[in-house]
Design brief:
The protein is about 40% helix and about 20% strand. By secondary structure, the protein is α/β, with parallel strands linked by helices. It has five domains: about 200 residues, P-loop containing nucleotide triphosphate hydrolases (Rossmann fold, 3-Layer(aba) Sandwich), CATH 3.40.50; about 45 residues; about 150 residues, Rossmann fold (3-Layer(aba) Sandwich); about 70 residues, no CATH class; about 90 residues, Orthogonal Bundle (Helix Hairpins). A six-stranded mixed beta sheet has the order 5-6-7-3-8-9, sandwiched between helices. It has a six-stranded mixed beta sheet with strand order 14-18-19-12-20-21, with helices on both faces. About 5% of the residues have low confidence.
């Protein structure tokens, strides 16, 4: 028997007082759906998700959630007012005694539930909101950029968690690897139309190009038919006026159809111009170290960066990646050792904190008042790579319209702020580009373009990112900061770094027996080529799944060990017992799956 949808939107129209964001939108989310929600920055992804969550009321249409179905929403800027700590917020709404769910999520997402809300960073607040959603375990989860402010370890933990859930979910994310691993279908917002493709994000780009090619062909045919009919009208209409009024009306209708077509928005006009070539040596660090009090950030470390190198810095949040970058660029001094810069360096910095942006200024003023972009005596032009250009024309290169030019920077979305910062950086020549978390909030198409631009850039690139796919596409060297001051340099991008780390682990002397699967799984080696991409990815992530399930079983066991629990709180005892049985079954299945894949890899 078919199950009822988790959510249904019918004939949704939403305008916000201007042009329609959506008009006549129909959408169904089925049980078990794993949907990527994609589209350009500003296309309405977050707005659609808020309509799905019931937080934004449409001008017209119907939102239906069947009785008994719970819908949970994780927004980008959660409201924690009224709560003393992050844990108190995350546990709000949970039945009493089930705060252990929050503790489990907090451990995986790497935040302290005891942190006071007043002292929490934006990233910690978002992680608490994500922990709240995971702990509540609704039938449908709506997640808006859940990987922002997560390091790669936490992203992989979340990936494993969502991979195991039975709930349906809709994901907005810039992280290609995350979307590719988790989604089975795609919702694509394009010029106010929402299309559904029955393929995960891995097939999205091929699908998008097919749709666009079909559009171009249909538009070309329409234009050709209009030209032919227009020639007929000019050459023969006077002689056949009475017999061909229907054809005249058809021509008018075709012209109306052409006028109604919404042209695809162009891509951002990203371009980087290298300044005068730097010396062959860009940066040489010898024996540099850093500590803040008793916390060791970096033990003595050497690094030599040459002109044209692409170096990625990876590691958990708080490990010191940005601190190392600032030591290399000379912004802060190391405690020991030395940093030597080559000649003719012109540095441009993309700051993850967006500190270069004054949120109270308009976009217009923010550009024309930039000392490095100002044109003497002109308040409407900016200097772009040595050429004066009207400020609105330059903003349009980065997909801002004329109305936005006079809007405050603080009103922009995260993706728009990132594009504005790119506009400032790309206006001036440089030969050393420092990118600290550039991928946060950018849409997939802008990320593609940024990657291409970096590929053509003659200068040197230093990159901090948690986006595994972007690192693979851009970096030729990876510096892994692994905690306790340890930093190790590897050749290649993220995947190469992972492979080299696995090869460094001690080889197993013999094939593991079934009872040894959990321990063996935690020493994953590089999978053999006989596995498919999906199987290789699964084999790499299963050890984390097994470790997480073991930890959860341990916490549930501690919770159930209270001899008075059954008599004093029988409902809590029942739910915890069911959770224990569910996780034990999942652990057994994960161990069996790991053994099967390991055998296939070894064959």
């Amino acid at each position: 028997m078919a199950r009822a949808p988790l959510l249904q939107l019918s004939d949704i129209s939403l305008t916000f007082g201007g042009d329609p964001v959506f008009d006549g939108l129909d959408l169904v989310v089925q049980p078990g759906d794993r949907l990527a929600l994609v589209g350009r920055n500003g296309s309405g992804k977050s707005t659609l998700m808020k309509v799905m969550a019931g937080l934004v009321e449409a001008d017209r249409g119907l939102r239906v959630v069947p009785p008994g179905v719970s819908v949970g929403y994780m927004e980008q800027e959660p409201d924690l007012s009224g709560f003393a700590t992050l844990g108190e917020f995350a546990a709000s709404g949970l039945p009493e005694g089930e705060a252990y769910r929050v503790a489990m999520a907090a451990e995986g997402l790497k935040f302290d539930p005891g942190t006071p809300v007043a002292a929490a960073s934006g990233g910690e607040r978002r992680r608490a909101a994500l922990a709240k959603l995971l702990a509540e375990a609704p039938e449908l989860m709506l997640l808006d950029e859940p990987t922002n402010h997560l390091d790669i370890e936490a992203i992989r933990w979340l990936e494993a968690e969502l991979g195991e859930t039975r709930a349906g979910y809709v994901l907005i994310s810039h992280d290609r690897a995350f979307l590719t691993a988790l989604t089975r279908a795609t919702l694509w917002i394009d010029r106010g139309v929402v299309r559904r493709g029955e393929t995960g994000f891995a097939g999205f780009e091929d699908w998008r190009e097919t749709v666009w090619a079909e559009e171009d062909l249909a538009r070309h045919k329409l234009e050709r038919k209009i030209r032919a009919e227009a020639r007929w009208a000019v050459e023969g209409i006077s002689a056949r006026r009475k017999r061909n009024q229907g054809r005249v009306r058809a021509l008018a209708a075709m012209r109306g159809e052409r006028a109604a077509l919404i042209r695809r928005q162009g891509v951002a006009d990203l371009a980087l111009e290298s300044g005068p070539a730097s010396g062959k040596l860009v940066i040489e660090a010898k024996g540099i170290s850093k500590a803040f009090g008793e916390k060791v950030i970096l033990k003595p470390f050497d690094l030599r960066i040459l002109r044209g190198d692409r170096v990625a810095f990876v590691g958990p949040n708080g490990v010191g990646k940005t601190t190392l970058l600032k030591m290399l660029t000379g912004e802060i001094a190391p405690d020991t050792g030395s940093v030597r810069h080559g000649t003719n360096l012109e540095i441009a910095v993309f700051d993850q904190a967006r500190a270069a942006l004054d949120f109270d200024m308009t976009l217009w003023d923010g550009l024309v008042n930039d000392p490095e972009m100002a044109v003497s005596g002109r308040s409407d032009q900016v200097m772009v790579r040595g050429v004066a250009k009207h400020v609105v024309a330059y903003l349009k290169d980065f997909l801002f319209d004329e109305a936005q030019a006079r809007a405050p920077i603080g009103s922009l979305s995260g993706g728009e702020r990132a594009r504005l910062l790119l506009a400032r950086i790309m206006a001036r020549p440089s030969n050393l580009l420092v990118l600290d978390e550039p991928t946060n909030d950018l849409d997939v198409e802008t990320l593609d373009l940024l990657q291409d631009v970096l590929g053509d850039y003659d200068g040197t690139v230093l990159l901090v990112s948690h986006d595994r796919d972007f690192i693979d596409r851009v970096a030729a060297t990876t510096v892994a900061m692994e905690g306790e001051g340890r930093a190790v340099t590897y050749a290649g991008g993220w995947s190469d770094y992972q492979s080299q780390r696995q090869e460094e682990r001690p080889a197993r002397a013999e094939k593991p027996a079934a009872k040894a699967a959990p321990a063996a799984a935690k020493q994953v080696r590089k999978p053999a080529q006989g596995l498919t991409f999906t199987e290789r990815h699964r084999l790499e992530t299963l050890p984390d799944v097994i470790e997480r399930l073991e930890a959860e079983i341990g916490k549930l066991s501690d919770f159930l060990s209270d001899p008075a629990l059954f008599s004093t709180a029988p409902e809590k005892f029942r739910r915890a017992s069911e959770a224990m049985a569910e996780r034990q079954a999942a652990l057994a299945a994960a161990e069996e799956e790991w053994l099967a894949l390991e055998e296939k890899a070894a064959s």
